[in-house]
C-alpha cells in the first residue's frame, strides 16, 4: 500500500525514484514518499524516516533533459567531426581502425584540460632558487632565522648575504612582532575537491578514489560523496558519526 524510496540524495537518485515508481503498479500517488539522508548513520536514517517527503518530479525531469541534451549534442558533433576531420586525423596521427571522432559535452572539455596540463608539464623549465636561513645562538639557545623575503632566484644576492652573515659575530635584536591567527575548521569536500585531494595527497586515480569513498559511505564513515556542495546537511550529526567509529 505504501512505497518509501531510499535512493541516493541527488538528482540522479531522484530520477531513479520515478523509474522505480513506474515499475510499482497499484500504489496510490499519495502513498509514495521519498527519504532524504546524507549518511548511513542511525540519527540520519531515523531523521529521514521521520521527515519523509514527496518525490520531486522537476529534479527527475532535469536529469532526463540533461541526458537527452548530452545525447543529441554528442551525436550531432560526433557526426560533424567525423565527416570533416576523420580523413585528415587518420593520416596525421596514423590511426588505422578509426571509424569516427567522438564528441561529448563532458569528455571533450575534460580531454582539453588533460592536454593543456600535459603541455604545461612538458614545457616546465626547472629553475634553481634559494631560501637563505641562519643559525644563531642566543644565550645558549640555538635559533634558526629565516630571510624576511623568504626566497630568491638571484644567486649573487644570496652570496652577498652569506658573506655578510659570516663576517658578523654579533646580531642586534631590533623588533618583536606577535600575531594572532585563527585557523578555521575544515569545510566538507565536494566531489571535485575530493578527487583533487586524493590525487595530490595520496596519488589515487579518480576511479580508485570514488571506490574507496563509496565504501566509506556505505560503512557510515563519511557523508554521501557524490555532491556539488561543501556544506553538511542540517540533519547530519558529525559528532555522532565520529562516535560510532
TrEMBL record:
Gene Ontology BP annotations: DNA recombination; DNA repair; DNA topological change
Name of this chain's protein: DNA topoisomerase
Reactions catalysed, as given in the entry: ATP-independent breakage of single-stranded DNA, followed by passage and rejoining
Gene3D superfamilies: 3.40.50.140, Topoisomerase I, domain 2, Topoisomerase I, domain 3, Topoisomerase I, domain 4
Any one Pfam family match given in the protein's UniProt record, by short name: Topoisom_bac
Keywords linked to the UniProt accession: DNA-binding, Isomerase, Topoisomerase
Record EC number: 5.6.2.1
GO cellular component: nucleus
Amino acid at each position: 500500500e505504501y512505497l518509501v524510496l531510499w535512493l541516493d540524495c541527488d538528482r540522479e537518485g531522484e530520477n531513479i525514484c520515478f523509474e522505480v515508481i513506474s515499475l510499482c503498479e497499484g500504489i496510490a500517488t499519495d502513498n509514495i514518499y521519498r527519504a532524504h539522508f546524507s549518511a548511513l548513520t542511525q540519527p540520519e536514517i531515523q531523521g529521514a524516516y521521520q521527515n519523509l517527503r514527496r518525490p520531486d518530479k522537476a529534479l527527475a525531469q532535469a536529469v532526463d533533459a540533461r541526458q537527452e541534451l548530452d545525447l543529441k549534442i554528442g551525436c550531432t558533433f560526433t557526426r560533424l567531426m567525423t565527416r570533416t576531420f576523420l580523413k585528415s586525423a587518420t593520416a596525421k596521427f596514423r590511426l588505422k581502425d578509426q571509424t569516427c571522432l567522438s564528441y561529448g559535452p563532458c569528455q571533450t572539455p575534460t580531454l582539453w584540460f588533460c592536454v593543456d596540463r600535459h603541455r604545461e608539464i612538458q614545457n616546465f623549465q626547472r629553475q634553481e632558487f634559494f631560501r637563505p636561513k641562519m643559525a644563531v645562538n642566543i644565550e645558549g639557545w640555538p635559533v634558526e632565522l629565516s630571510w624576511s623575503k623568504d626566497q630568491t632566484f638571484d644567486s649573487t644576492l644570496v652570496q652577498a648575504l652569506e658573506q655578510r652573515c659570516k663576517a658578523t659575530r654579533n646580531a642586534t635584536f631590533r623588533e618583536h612582532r606577535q600575531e594572532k591567527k585563527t585557523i578555521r575548521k575544515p569545510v566538507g569536500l565536494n566531489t571535485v575537491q575530493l578527487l583533487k585531494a586524493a590525487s595530490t595527497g595520496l596519488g589515487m586515480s579518480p576511479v580508485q578514489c570514488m571506490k574507496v569513498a563509496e565504501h566509506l559511505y556505505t560503512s557510515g564513515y563519511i557523508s554521501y560523496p557524490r555532491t556539488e556542495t561543501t556544506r553538511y546537511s542540517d540533519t547530519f550529526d558529525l559528532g555522532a558519526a565520529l562516535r560510532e567509529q
